[in-house]
Amino acid sequence: MHNFYNWVDRRFPFKEIVHEHLTGYYAPKNFNFLYYFGSMALLVLLIQILSGIFLLSHYHASATQAFDSIQSIMYDVKWGWLIRYLHTTGVSFFFIAIYLHMLRGYLYGSFRSPRELLWIVGYTIYLALMAEAYFGYVLPYGNMSYWGAEVITSIIGAIPYVGHWLSALARGGLGIGDATLNRFMAFHVVLVPLILIGLVVLHVLALHRVGSNNPDGIEINDYRRSDGRPWDGIPFHPYYTVKDTFGAAVFLLLFALVVIYAPTMHGLFIDTANFTPANPLHTPADVTPAWYLSPYYAMLRAIPNKAAGIGMLALAIAIPYAVPWLDRNPVRSSRYRPVYLGMVIILAGSFLGLGWIGMQPAAPALLPPARILLGLYLAFFALLPVVSHFEPTRAVPQRVTA
Amino acid sequence: MRHIVRCAVAGMALSISVLADAANAAVTLEHAHYRFDAATLARGAKLYAEHCLSCHSVRYVRYSRLVPDLGMTKSTVEQTVMLPAGASFDRGMISVMKPVDAKRWFGTAPPDLSLEVRYRGADWVYTYLHSFYWDPQRPSGWNNRLFPNVAMPDVLAHLGGIQDRQGHTLVASALTPAEFDRMTADITAWLRYTSDPSKIKRMALGPYVIGFLVLFAVLAYLLKRAYWRDVER
Amino acid sequence: MNGKKDIESVNSDKREFLTVVTTAVGLAGAGLVSVPFVKSLEPDAAVKAASVVTVDISQLKPGMHLTISWQDKPVIIVHRTPEMLATLKETIPELRDPDNHAPQQPPYCDNPYRSRKPEWLVMARVCTHLCCTPLFEPNKGSVAPGWLGGFHCPCHGSLYDLSGRVFKNVPAPRNMAIPEYEFTDDHKAVKITGMWPKAKLC
Fold this sequence. Notes:
Number of domains of chain B: 1
CATH superfamily of chain B: Cytochrome c-like domain
CATH class of the largest domain in chain C: Mainly Beta
Strand content of chain C: 15-25%
Order of helices and strands of chain C: HHEEEHEEEEEE
Helix content of chain C: 25-40%
Number of helices of chain B: 10
Number of helices of chain C: 3
Distance between the termini of chain B: 72 Å
Structural class of chain C: alpha+beta
Oligomer: heterotrimer
CATH architecture of chain B: Orthogonal Bundle
């Protein structure tokens, strides 16, 4: 066995890779619960790819056959229902993991120098994930798939000068149909997954270059033993491989509970309107996107002007890219910055509140709260440069705390 | 071509339901009480075949799956459920009513009900069956509190009796209220099954899968703890 | 010092033990989970339903036959006459496997007629040598002097009797395969439901 490893290692940097990224990669020893979600997201990506391949083996991308092909998977294909439910549950768990992963980033200043590029790559993964989810949602061609496609491609049409042309590119025709489904399948199965995998590789490489942050926001590499190992670091393998295995077990347990006992989650994970075929003549009473996109939907609905709404939406989605440069305080972690912690809590709370509003049918009574929450969300980014400059901070320890 | 007709007709039917959506809010749904077990579903299958299948397909459900799923024998299925002409054991439960005839008789094709419970909810379907009333102003004479101006007549009237819009009895029911509730609950349970036959398998496998994962999680935790003992916090 | 060393080695043994057990359980789980994925690629209920074909035999008078394409294979249905059935006893000495030792037919066709009902032959018309479609030669003497009726494969000369049973001294090794089938209640049609799993077509 030992000879086999040596044989491979002469021809491929196997030992080097294992050392650099596993046994010799020292991560802070004080990772908390929020630090599980990076590897959990990777696990879900794997689940999505596997279940996706086997769904693709039975799916028909045609306006007349798509819906029936999904039902054929659910009714006729052996264990097809399991593969389908794994895929739909995976989408929601992916976003739960990513949102908690991002929250960790905000809380502990994981976007701060020298991790700006890490943050940018990560946020791009988030956007790619939203695109992936959107394309995938259209494929079953239920009524919500149809109208969701209709609405989003119309939003593209609002872009000045090139909007109509781009919208026609997206649709492949005047309206949503065969051409749309075929290209969305190409995007969902090949284009975006390749982009996602590539970005994830870049993300991990960027992380390993700068080293992981931790809840105290201090650099463990600043305090090393004589042999170069950080005092507060532990090798990723075996400590975090073993810890993430446990995390994965609990994650899969929750995943299985949903798949087995509540796969539609009462319309949250699979919309009830999608249990009826696409009908160009009948718009569902509420064309709401899936829960993970609903904060943005609430933001859009909060602005009555179409162009202004779309512009604001673009801003709200793009502004987090700027966060590494908006935050000016020398201290990273919200553990030592009570004002910043309050701001992050308000950011998260307003995002959640907007999410709830986005899932409700449109109602005039919801407009004021939506606008307030949108204001709070944007205020985080607008105020951060100023507040971070002046806010009081607590003393930051030199060595990590629990 | 046929598909376009079907789509257009379905579209018209569903566009009528937009009006229904608005009216729905006024009607509180009655809760369907049933135990989701093989006996209930077998009764529901037979009732559905008797009263509904002549107009409403459940095309994704093949007769053959009633044997492993519901524990019925092949001959029982053939005799009590495979009622439409030309029904084939391996094929789906399809109504043989032609869309052309349906349009003529009802103004619209009766929709396939495979996913109806997933789409509207079990309690909606149950309440729907309890909400028919006699309305002389409608061409069929029937209307429904939950689905205003529905094209469907009250096919269970001979069993459940006839009420007017206010709920007064015009014709007494042949069944007792409990029997009628049981019957409509069985049909609802059947449609819950057709919406998602996997429920049977999921419930059966669930405890084992969860049990295995709990075991794995416990082992993984012990393993984690064995290593992390070294790490002083 | 000794005590600490003991704890360390116990710890290491415990770690190893737990690693082995957890990995084993994990791999077992992965193995179990892979089963539904693999099985999902098996022919599904829709394919199986499409594979069930009902053939109208009400117009087939005695002596007549028809061949349909089932799952891209030719299946012949022959309405055999009493004379044809009589030849089945006479061909026995020349047959490789007159008693159906090879499982080329479902159990209900394990008889000299190789069918549910003597006068109806339902058979996959595929030569068990190299899969050609044999010619149906029911007339006496048409293939060679003394020919009582049966099938003759033009590719390499294999011969079969009117039950599809293979002759000795021909390239084909087995009797032609009989699919699973049933008659409809009114006996106006034959419903072919699948290949007999143990049969080798060619």
